[in-house]
Every structure is written in C-alpha cells, then in structure tokens.
Predict the 3D structure of the following.
Amino acid sequence: MAKPFIIGTFNSGEFLHAGQKILNEGGTAIDAIVAATKQVEENPKDTSVGMGGIPNIFGVQEMDASIMCGKTLKAGAVGAIKGFRYPITVAEKVLEVAPHVLLVGAGAEFFGKAMGCELGDLSTDRSREVYQAFLDDALEELPDDEAFKPYIIEYVQKQNLRKWYDRLADDHHGTVNIMAMDSDGNMASAVSTSGTALKFPGRLGDSPIIGAGNYCDNRHGAAACTGRGELAIRASTARTLVGYMENGMTLEEAAAQCMRDIHNLKTPGGMNCIAIDREGNTISATTRGDRESYHWYMDVDSKEPEKRIGINVPE
C-alpha cells in the first residue's frame, strides 16, 4: 500500500501542507482534504474558489462544493450557497449527518446555519472590481432594479456574455480539486468552486454533482474535474474515469479516454482532471494542447509540494 499522501490542483501546492499535517498525525483522508480545501477557500487572491470568487451576473457570489468518502461511497454536496466562509464544511456536514447527498440554495444555507458552519462575506475589492467592469461594459447606464434583471437576461440570450467570458483571465475560471489516501488506505476527494465567473443565477456546474465533477471509490480510485462543468455533467467524467479503471484500464489510459470523451461532445470549452488509483499512482490530464497539465503531490515524508506533470490530450 502507498504511504499516505495528498494531491491537488491550484496555482501553488502550499495549501497541501494543512492536509499533510493531518495525515502525518494519523488522521483520516476526509479530514486532510477538508483542511487543505479550506486553505484555498480562504485565499482572497484566488478568484475562482471561496473568498474573492467572481459573482454571478446579478453580483451575488454563489458557491458549490462536494466531498466523497471512498470507503463508504457516502457523499455530501452543496450548490449555489451564499454567505459561508468554507463551503466545503457545509458539504462535509451533508455527508456526515444528512439523509441526502445534495442540497442547494436556501435549503443548503438553512442546513449550514443549523449545523453551525461559519458564516462570512466572501467579496473582496478585486471581485467587486471585476463585477463593476462587467457592468460598465454591459450597460451604458444602470437601469432601475425592476428593469435590470430583464435587461441582463436579454443580454445573455444575445450571447454577448460569451464575448465577456473570453476576455476573462484564466484565474477567473477554475476549481480546486483535492484527494488523499490515509494510513488505512482509505481515499477521499473534495471539490470547491465559485463556478464560472458571471454565471447565470442558480447555475450548477459539475463540482457539486457526484459522478460528474467528483467521484471516489477505495476499490478502484478517485477523480475530480475542473473546466467547463456542463461537459463533465454530460459525460459523467469523474465516475466514468473510475469506471474505466474498474474495467481494466490503467490510470493514464482512463484519464486520456475521458479527455477524448469530452472532445467527442463537439462542444466549445475545455476540461481538466486529476485522478488516483488504488495503488496510489496519481495523474492530471487536460483536453488543451496549449497549457501544461500538472498537479501537486505531498506524502507524509515530503518537505515541500512536488509538482507533477500530467498529460495533454488535444483534439
């Protein structure tokens, strides 16, 4: 069995230290991935996860998160929640105590408050600046409140919003994926995101959808995704990747095939994934040919995060 380890996707691997510390102390994979995810969620410099996430087209930050236990196949997920400092902790409470897998919107917020999950304002000067830039470009002048929503809906329907998406920097698109294996050989995986910048209110991507953006099974492995979530939902990417391994593919073969499955949808947008197998091998993959695929790795003996280069599977 592989030594306990944790991997994740983010600009820097420093967030993995929090999870590695827990694994070093004999803690569970679940506790390790929650600790690491919280480090990203509270980072105001990131604009795609937690604090500082770019809001939706009405200026409201809506967060999605999910977590899955590979030993029990239990999962918890929340979508379109507002006002929680650590969305992953609300998803964890769903896993631990709720008779459900997915809670969204007001119901998820009620549940999170009842569970005592920490509240907080996730907006930052940067996220407000990006939203104001969108408004300045979208509207010659801001109409009164009643006229505002129909105008924005019409704006989206005309697909002008897609041009604005294209102008967003890469760091305005993204998700954090984290997975770990503990000293008992149990796996767990977590995903957290603020979703596509300037998304339509109520939009859910793949991050809170178990089987699409997140899946974990001790018997075979785990996978998680980032990219255009609608594609991973349509292809059931995370569960399919694990299923490919269940049916005899190697980790690399499974990841590459899932990227080809995304290409076969013939729809604009890209996809990235990270995955592990039951032997503790790790990989990352992307449908893009113009950007390096990589993930960060730490085991219990690591001093610093190790950057591991993945595979590119362009069309």
Observations:
- The CA atoms of residues 48 and 195 lie 7 Å apart.
